[in-house]
């Protein structure tokens, strides 16, 4: 499993009935795709913010709000999926 997003979302559950038994629960393919899309969009929006600063010398609060929202979404999915 060389996909780091899928590996980050995979759960390992220790069975209480049998000693030493571990069940691996893989995430839904749609969840993995959604997280990859959100991470990709965060990188694109960060590049857009850098270009905006380089060309116009002005901070764009709208782009920063979108970046913050996507980071919050990805963090919430990763934390919520493991809880």
Structure keywords:
mainly alpha; elongated
Tell me the structural class. mainly alpha
Taking all residues together, what is the mean pLDDT? 86
Distance between the termini: 22 Å
The count of domains is: 1
- What is the molecular shape? elongated
Main beta sheet: strand number and arrangement? 2 strands, antiparallel
Describe this structure in words.
The protein has 83 residues and is mostly helical. The protein has one domain (4-82). Helices cover 67% and strands 10% of the residues. The protein has helices at 4-9, 29-56, 61-82, and strands at 11-14, 22-25. Strands 1-2 form a two-stranded antiparallel ribbon. A hairpin with a 7-residue loop joins β1 (11-14) and β2. The protein is elongated, with a radius of gyration of 18 Å. The model has no long low-confidence stretch (mean pLDDT 86).
Please give the structural blueprint.
Blueprint lengths: L3 H6 L1 E4 L7 E4 L3 H28 L4 H22 L1
Antiparallel strand pairs: 1-2
Short description:
The chain has 83 residues and is mainly alpha-helical. 67% of the residues lie in helices and 10% in strands.
């Amino acid at each position: 499993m060389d996909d780091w997003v899928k590996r980050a979302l995979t759960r390992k559950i220790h069975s209480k009935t049998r000693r030493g038994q571990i069940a691996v629960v893989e995430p839904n393919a749609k969840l993995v795709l959604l997280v990859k899309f959100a991470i990709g969009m965060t990188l694109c929006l960060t590049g857009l913010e850098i270009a905006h600063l380089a060309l116009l010398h002005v901070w764009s609060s709208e782009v920063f709000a979108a970046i913050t929202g996507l980071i919050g979404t990805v963090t919430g999915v990763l934390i919520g999926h493991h809880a």
